[in-house]
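Researcher: Next sequence.
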Amino acid sequence: MNSSNPKNAGSSLDALMTSFNARILELQQLVIARNMYPASSIPDLSDVDAAVSALELQVQTIKDSFRNEMEAIPKAKKCIDACMQQQKKLQNMSLYIPSQMADKTTLSNSETSRVLFPEFSGLDSGSFEASKLDVEPAALPKEKKGRGPPPTWYVTGSELDSLSSYMRGRLTLEKVNAAISDMASYAEANTQLIAAPKKKLAENLWEKALEIRDIATMEGIKGKHFFLEADIKGPALKLDNPGKAILTVLRHLGRFNETRVGHHRVFILHKPH
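Model: Next structure:
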């Protein structure tokens, strides 16, 4: 600073003070900004942004899944309706099938024979017919001719819907009708035992065959298809809580009646009216 020129010295000092005051103002603004947006908040905001992005992605995935499910519902309804119509047609057709024809929903005679008479299962049909000449007089031969296949009187959807919700519970039409197929299989196995000669029976089945033959001669059972409580072993019908509920429903709908013979609980199948 040139001390010999007081005017110039004063101007330089004023400029210096103005610059100093401007710098102080800038520093004050920086301090305020630092207090408003501390450096530690930046990572927190980044985490929040990442979390929000992840949630948006999940919401979009849920929307896509929900849309796909909504689009599939009409197709599933059409499929269910078609199945119900087909089932009704088959049930109506079954009413007109001659009793001599084997029921496809039950065990076939050949399949049941393989189960009950393992030593006889290797014979072909010609050998089987020839072997009939050697059969000893079987129990109840007249009933064997007129017995026919066990009835499979399936339940319709309207019948199941007519039951009270307390009786129906969580049972479905498929489960109930699968149980009817099982019952027909049990009855068919007992029919085979009634008609089988002793020498064609497996050794462990002879005592049961005698019991079944005695039961088959009882009043109210003779000439009808039946099975025992001890026969109930699945696959669809079992002696558990759902199985007992199914039996209650089928008894109420008139698919069978039951009686007691000695210590046996006997279920007698009914034919469609």
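Model: Residues 99-108, 119-146 have pLDDT under 50 and may be disordered. Residues 41-94 form the longest helix (54 residues).
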